[in-house]
């Protein structure tokens, strides 16, 4: 997978939110095989212990700052610029939220922010609804990828509209990264089978009972989905189609059958 | 009065950002600063002095989705 000229071997991007301990995060990064993880910016807490940046450095992963918590293009653009200072990267996972309860993106503010950030030289990866027309708008303003949701952030409801994800895939050559909604491994496999280039996963891994085991499960599911996509699945059929040939089927005549010929 | 991260602070006007960050025990990396909703680049922290009434946001890398 290539994003903005950068080659990735892993098709799993890990969100670092929700891990109870930095040690668990480090182990999950390793188990997931990911090469890029998201981070956020928040007000400094002088009492906080442990350094997230040091853990990510040691893991050797690229950092993808997000603009989580922003509700306007203005705040998202400022947050992206602060992230560029903090992390020395011009990559940004652009989130502009429009609703507190569902955390669904605000399409209008999102396109506005994306346009400004692209103009300012950012590599913009927008978190978006599964709307193919909006995805096209984001491509038009120069985003480096599009990241449609499967279902709301942290809901674990999987992919609610597989048809839309297929449409987004079909219409664009830019990377499609399924972001949000993955609840377990099979959701990630489906995303890849639908033609996504990658999956971004946070809660499904970080909030699983065993985050490290789930990281490995989702890694394997992503690989399985890519293989299945490439292998070319069979068409759906309404009725059965026997896989065993009909020719050569034996005919068994039992002694009690009335039709049995009488031996002389 | 200078506000730091939404709270009134005892920081005196004329304090540099570098001095404020030291007082907050901010690490060297993974930190960004905005003053009055404008980014202050790292290279300016040494000489950037805070005026009375400034609203400072000192942000740090945290885990997030």
Helix content of chain A: 25-40%
User: How many distinct beta strands of chain A?
Assistant: 10
Mean pLDDT of chain B: 93
Number of strands of chain B: 5
Q: Into which percent range does the helicity of residues of chain B fall? A: 10-25%
Cα-atom radius of gyration of chain A:
24 Å
Chain pair sharing the greatest interface:
A-B, 32 and 25 residues
Estimated share of beta-strand residues of chain A = 5-15%
Provide the succession of SSEs of chain A: EEEHEHEHEHEHEHEHEHH
Sheet with the most strands of chain B? Answer: 5 strands, mixed
Tertiary shape of chain A = elongated
Query: By helix and strand content of chain A, what is the structural category?
Result: alpha/beta
Shape designation of chain B:
globular
Q: What is the terminal separation of chain B in angstroms?
A: 35 Å
Q: Tell me the major beta sheet of chain A.
A: 5 strands, parallel
- The parts of chain A where pLDDT drops under 50 for at least 5 residues are none
In terms of per-residue confidence, which ranges of chain B show pLDDT below 50 for 5 or more consecutive residues? none
* Secondary-structure element pattern of chain B, one letter each: EEHEEE
Strand content of chain B: 25-35%
Features:
heterodimer, A: 264 residues, alpha/beta, 5-stranded parallel sheet, 3-stranded parallel sheet, elongated, B: 65 residues, mainly beta, 1 helix, 5 strands
Walk me through the structure.
The complex is a heterodimer of chains A (264) and B (65). By secondary structure, chain A is an alpha/beta fold. Chain A has nine helices and ten strands. Chain A has helices spanning 22-32, 52-59, 73-87, 107-119, 132-140, 162-171, 185-193, 203-206, 211-231, and strands spanning 2-3, 6-7, 12-15, 36-43, 62-65, 91-94, 123-128, 147-148, 177-179, 198-201. In chain A, the strands form three sheets. A five-stranded parallel beta sheet of chain A has the order 5-4-3-10-9. In chain A, helix 7 (185-193) runs parallel beside helix 9 (211-231). The N and C termini of chain A lie far apart (77 Å). The relative contact order of chain A is 0.14. The mean pLDDT of chain A is 95. Chain B has 65 residues and is mainly beta. Chain B is 11% helix and 34% strand. Chain B has one helix and five strands; from the N terminus they run ββαβββ. Chain B has a five-stranded mixed beta sheet, with no helix packed on it. In chain B, a hairpin with a 2-residue loop joins strand 1 and strand 2. The longest helix of chain B is centred in the N-terminal third of the chain and has 7 residues, at 17-23. The termini of chain B are far apart. The mean pLDDT of chain B is 93. The interface between A and B is medium-sized, with 32 and 25 residues.
